[in-house]
């Protein structure tokens, strides 16, 4: 799904969303230089795997947070974690570095990626901003709607204190 297909998918399902188009960004530092309407709701997305390459996770947190993978492992009962390779990112989510987003889970044919979302996104205003499978826009979507869409796709979703 490209970004236009994401927009159509959300519209067809009558899901509230807003779009902010912008230049391509590859990391949170570059994104911080763009005037976003809701910068405090911007998400950072990490695609990681366990040390056996058996389990893959997409972790979505507030953009200002740092994620300690050792603490995440301990708090969520996973094996040791590291970042997935560019090849794994493309094979499983059909995404490139800089474009990692929960919408990439719609490309997970095996429904094997476990999605973790930071509990803080459930607090008011109850929405977050993520890329629409391309790093040239940010889609603002209600947290619960995003979680429901991912569950509907067949992937597991956990809300976690990260």
Overall description:
- The protein is of the alpha/beta class and 162 residues long.
- Helix content is 26%, strand content 27%.
- It has five helices and eight strands; from the N terminus they run H-E-H-E-E-H-E-H-E-E-E-H-E.
- A hairpin with a 5-residue loop joins strand 2 and strand 3 (56-62).
- The model has no long low-confidence stretch (mean pLDDT 95).
In angstroms, what is the radius of gyration? 15 Å
Walk across the major sheet and give the strand order: 4-2-3-5-8
Give the averaged pLDDT, no decimals.
95
C-alpha termini separation: 28 Å
**3D shape:** globular
Can you write the helix and strand succession as a string?
HEHEEHEHEEEHE
Strand elements, count = 8
The major β-sheet equals: 5 strands, mixed
SS class: alpha/beta
Residue runs with pLDDT of under 50 for 5 or more positions:
none
Roughly how much helix do the residues carry, as a percent range? 25-40%
Task: Tally the helices.
Answer: 5
Quick take:
By secondary structure, the chain is an alpha/beta fold. The protein is built from five helices and eight strands; from the N terminus they run αβαββαβαβββαβ.
Output the keywords.
162 residues; alpha/beta; five-stranded mixed sheet; three-stranded antiparallel sheet; 26% helix
């Amino acid at each position: 799904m490209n970004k236009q297909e994401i927009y159509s998918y959300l519209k067809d399902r009558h899901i509230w969303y807003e779009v902010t188009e912008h230049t391509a960004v590859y990391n949170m530092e570059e994104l911080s230089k763009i005037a976003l309407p809701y910068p405090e709701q911007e998400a950072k997305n990490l695609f990681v795997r366990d040390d056996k390459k058996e389990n893959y996770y997409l972790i979505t947190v507030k953009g200002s947070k740092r994620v300690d993978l050792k603490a995440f492992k301990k708090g969520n009962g996973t094996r040791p974690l590291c970042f997935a390779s560019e090849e794994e990112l493309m094979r499983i989510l059909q995404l490139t570095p800089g474009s990692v987003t929960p919408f990439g889970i719609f490309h997970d044919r095996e429904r094997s990626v476990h999605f973790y979302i930071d509990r803080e996104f459930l607090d008011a205003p109850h929405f977050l901003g993520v890329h629409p499978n391309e790093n040239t826009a940010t889609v603002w979507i209600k947290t619960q709607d995003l979680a429901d869409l991912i569950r509907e796709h067949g992937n597991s979703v956990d809300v976690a204190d990260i």
